[in-house]
Amino acid sequence: FEAKVRSDKPESATDALGVKSEVKTDSHSDNGHLNNGSVNGNESSINNILIVEDEMIQSILLEKLIKSLGYEVIGKVTTGAEAIEMALKLKPDIITMDISLQDDIDGIMATSSIQKESMIPVIYISGNSDKYNYERAKKTNYIDFITKPVNREILAKSFSKAESTNKEKTS
What we know:
Elements: E1 10-14, E2 20-24, E3 48-52, H1 56-68, E4 72-77, H2 80-90, E5 94-97, H3 107-117, E6 122-126, H4 131-137, E7 142-147, H5 152-170
Parallel strand pairs: 3-4, 3-5, 5-6, 6-7
Antiparallel strand pairs: 1-2
Helix pairs in contact: 2-3
């Protein structure tokens, strides 16, 4: 037996990383996950995320942050070649893309290749914040460019931008 409490009053919660956030208890689905972008009961069309990150610790952290925001991680890869293959196969709603990867195809080149076939939006999450990479990234369809380290609040803002962009495209 599971009791459900519905309230429009925000509750304050602190996640494992110490980030305090407000959550409405009626925004949870039956499985306990947040319904992202839910407006008047309409589900968001952004749910499935592909993580492209070559550092294991960063990848695990990013996956936990994404899941804590209520999104589903449908794949994790470490190379540009895998990113292209999995993005075109899985068709995620968003890709979180590191720039430096384990092969000779960096995240920006991978994004360009992916977007020749499918305009999947990208959130760049990288330690490379130099002007050269930023200018290259601007030539792709990206939602945001985040410099590591990433936290829940910054990631939530990027996903919110993606939700807004997606709503504009579907309106």
